[in-house]
Amino acid sequence: MTRTIRVEHLARVEGHGGITVTLDGERVESVHFDVIEGARLLERLVRSRRYDEIAPIVSRICAICSAAHSLTSLQATEAALGIEVSPTTRLLRDLMLRGENIESHALHIFLLAAPDYLDYPSAIAMAGRHRDAVALGLRLKRLGNMIQEVLGGRAIHPVNAVVGGFGHPPSTEELVALEDALESGVSDALTATEFVASLPTADFCDTETTFAALETPERYGYADGKHITVRRSGTAQRIPIADYRSLTNERVVPHSHAKHSLYDEQPFMVGALARLAVNGGGLTEAARSVMRTLELQLPSRNPMDNNKAQTVELILDIELALGIVRRLLSTDLHDTAPAPIVPRAGTGTAVTEAPRGLLVHSYTYDADGRIARADVITPTAMNAASLEHHFQDAVTRGAALDDAALRKRLEMIARAYDPCISCSVHLIRRRFEGRRP
Amino acid sequence: MQATKPTVGIFGLTGCAGDQLVILNCEDELLSLVDVVDIRDFLMAASGGDEFSTLDIAFVEGAVMTRRDEEKLQRIRRRAKALVAIGTCALQGGVPAMADGLDWPSAVRDVYGPEGDGFDALPARALHECVEVDFSLPGCPIEKHEFLGAVADLLNGNPPQLPTYAVCTECKMRECDCLLVDQGRFCHGPLTRAGCRARCPSYAVPCVGCRGPVPDPNLGSAMDVYTSKGWSPEEVVQRLRTFGPLPTPVPAGEAA
After folding, report:
1. What is the pTM of this model?
2. Complex ipTM, two decimals?
3. What is the 8-class DSSP label of residue A63?
4. Mean pLDDT, to the nearest integer, of B147-151?
5. Domains observed in chain B
6. B195-252: per-residue pLDDT in tens?
7. Which is nearest to B93 in space by CA: B132, B143, B128?
8. With an 8 Å Cβ cutoff, are B45 and A12 in contact?
9. Tell me: domain A2-424, CATH 3.20.20.10, correct?
10. Is A297 on the interface with B (CB under 8 A)?
11. DSSP labels for B18-44?
12. Would you call A45 an interface residue with chain B, using a CB distance cutoff of 8 Å?
């Protein structure tokens, strides 16, 4: 007998998506992660726009990842136009990305994911009996936003980061305030670890998973990498970032009639858990201790571990951000002023680690410094095939469960991936094909 | 008084979810906010929302870009006593509406290939092009203080108030250097509604016009200033379209 399990509108994620799974008895017939977001065509709309207009437009792809979109865009433009930025600019950008990661992870762990584990419809409902935990999450989220406001001038759609540098570097007073806030953040992050460790176990999957993340020159960095590492079964392959298409190519697979991003015939996962799998050597002692407390074993075979991996990154980002702020306090920040720009024709590709994983922006400019071609590939688009792979594993293992229990597992897995559906610039194509007769 | 708390819904159509995120970013106020209002439907933050009850206030962000968006907006309109458009996409279409005059079906095909032909993808429309809008809060994203102020106003039965002057006024009050007149850079300040405390110029970055036009923008005079600084009329028009159609008087129903 065939049965269909549907989640019409996935709640507590960014954007609009749904899940459809069909079973014949205990055999999984199809799994779909549907995108029901309108198409905004931003890659088409930036054509003929000049280099200074691009980052403010493409940051609007997504609010939660707007700093990552903005900075990845600036780097792609700088690569195309041959602009070198100062080491201080790179440091400020690194700090901005860590601020975004802290905000995004705190939002996700406490406000979006945790209510499932404790059986509440929302963090607002959860605040009735767990007010301290919700207040803690909000405090950590505010810390991330404070960093983004100081560096970017605004928590969402930053204005201060521009091609070649920053409009204004942060003042000493702002940096001192950040130092204080980050110092309190360290103990908040340790309390967050206790909260996450106290949540019930969620072992819905047990399957070999391929991970992809950016290799970076900085310790556990989020930008400036030249290679992507793909890790599976103890093997690692390196892809130069200019060849990103060999990672993100899309293919038709029989079970869903939808195109998937596959590398070497395998779906791959990006995000915090993938970064730990690839760059775990760069962890601080406190982050290692958090991993032990959470009993997080790598390489993971369970995507629910992404929630734990984000908790590890919370402490790590706060510690590393604190180190950066202290360095900045003894640095002259004036070399962050952008130099005059001389337009030229060229192509530039930048890959960063957004909170949800690898983010690619690749642009071709004409001789007047206007966009001729823009390509944006987001972590949620890359994760779609892997998400369906884990849906399939979870449904196969839980086929004997009733619809409500299965639906809850599917929703929890989708949320563990922390999907950002507004970001799914290319993903939308899949839904159409998935629905095709 | 638990039983008499006003009911609120927070919704997103097609967009970046930035305005809903601004609401979630009210970290210091969020828990007190839910003490005074009953949030019935907020899909981005809560599952199991109540999709049918009457709402005293519905906040809606995003542009109408699918038939599904349009149906959803009509359902929200039917159940809301006051519908508040939040963010520039909801007010005037936002960045996806910059393509004024673009052949939409061929642009869809350009990005999505031949499969795009059957896709539920419409050119961006503002909420007021589809339903009646009672109040509007501009910004990409909205300003936290304007959102919290609007909630307080609406709970007290007052229409939310917005500045009716341009970003230039706030820029002068902050004594920032003029990026347009002194440096010839393309700044949208003269045409853009204030309320952001001239955020971008305060970082020596030109205003991009994300809050939409000031009421009664003087387009002719602005064009003269831009062209006198060496910007071609075509470039001026393209840039002024970044967050939607060219500035026109504000839509009816907006509090002024």
Report:
1. 0.94
2. 0.93
3. S
4. 96
5. 7-155 (3.40.50.700), 167-240 (no CATH)
6. 999 999 999 999 999 999 999 899 999 999 999 999 999 999 999 999 988 765 444 4
7. B128
8. yes
9. no
10. no
11. HHHHHHHT-TTTHHHHHHHSEEEE-TT
12. yes
